[in-house]
Specification:
- With about 300 residues, this protein is of the alpha/beta class.
- The protein has one domain: Protocatechuate 4,5-dioxygenase, Chain B, CATH 3.40.830.
- It has ten helices and eight strands.
- Strands 1, 2, 3, 4, 5, 6, 7 and 8 form an eight-stranded mixed beta sheet that branches.
- α8 runs antiparallel to α9.
- The chain is globular.
- The protein starts with 10 loop residues before the first helix and ends in a 10-residue tail after the last strand.
């Protein structure tokens, strides 16, 4: 496994530092704000929730809504599907090869990662589920309850063929009686993400409208089950949801996604690039279109 890419900030360390600074009192602020959405019925109906992983100050209420939904759903098990970012050069090169049409089955990093699984452990440097786990643990303390069993899993290189992912059988077994949530920041935009200046927009000057349009395009492709089309959409829209989205769709079938709220976070400081440079986080409710029996979930 190659060394860490120098062009990616150490978001894991920053996230953990933020948790230490906020503590229980800070977490409570986001957890209370998360009550503005009641998404437990969505999970009970075999739907799903997608939440962001930009900073807690921007999207903590989104993540809290997902935490409440999981705990209020009555489920005994929760599957949280994370994003495995290409934090090393070999992960980045593999992702680029697959996007260009290479045979995903030949890639060493192809598969599902997570605690207790054999194989690669790139997930240990990942940050995408850290905010969810932080608020999850804090809310369990607040409620004083025995929590559902939580499975955090990180698929990599779905490549239009999530049914072939090494480790997908374990996820199918978990999915039979678990509720599912996933994380994604589905639109990165501007100078820091190699958009040309003439096609880079500030959030309130057409940028968020563009973000909504692109995110909805991706949700439509997932609903249709166009896995490769969705993979390439994520490349073009600079969405980090490509593997999470395909995996969720394969496990839980066709769902109709609705954007419940959009937030954005400026990234000029993190990448030392001029504005506009920002990322969009979205809270998305996914409602099932078919009986889960159709997809072998019972």
């Amino acid at each position: 496994m190659s060394t860490r890419r120098q062009d990616i900030p150490d978001f894991k360390s920053r996230t953990l530092q933020e948790h230490a600074r906020l503590g229980a009192e800070g977490a409570a602020k986001f957890l209370e704000a998360g009550h503005q959405w009641n998404l437990a019925p969505t999970l009970r109906e075999r739907g799903a929730i997608i939440f962001p992983h930009i900073g807690l100050e921007k999207c903590g209420h989104h993540i809290a809504a997902a935490v409440h939904a999981c705990l209020d759903s009555g489920a005994d098990r929760v599957l949280a599907i994370g994003v495995l970012h290409a934090l090393t050069q070999d992960l980045q090169e593999a992702r680029m090869r697959v996007a260009q049409g290479a045979d995903v089955t030949k890639e060493e990093s192809w598969g599902v990662q997570g605690e207790g699984l054999k194989g690669r452990a790139d997930w240990q440097n990942e940050f995408s589920l850290l905010n969810f786990i932080f608020l999850w643990q804090e809310e369990i303390k607040r409620r004083g309850v025995k929590p559902p069993q939580l499975f955090a899993r990180y698929p990599y290189l779905a490549g239009g063929r999530p049914h072939l992912l090494p480790g997908i059988e374990e996820l199918k077994a978990i999915a039979r009686d678990a509720v599912v949530v996933g994380t994604a920041d589905p639109f990165h935009h501007g100078i820091a993400y190699n958009d040309p200046p003439e096609k880079s927009f500030m959030p309130n000057e057409g940028g968020l409208d563009l973000a909504r349009k692109r995110i909805e395009e991706g949700l439509t492709l997932l609903k249709l089950g166009d896995y490769w089309g969705y993979n390439q959409h994520c490349v073009d829209a600079k969405s980090d949801a490509r593997d999470m989205g395909q995996t969720m769709r394969y496990l839980y079938g066709a769902m109709d996604g609705t954007i419940l709220d959009l937030q954005c976070q400026d990234m000029t400081v993190e990448y030392n690039k001029p504005a506009p440079s920002w990322v969009t986080g979205a809270l998305i409710g996914m409602k099932p279109l078919h009986d889960p029996i159709e997809y072998g979930l019972h």
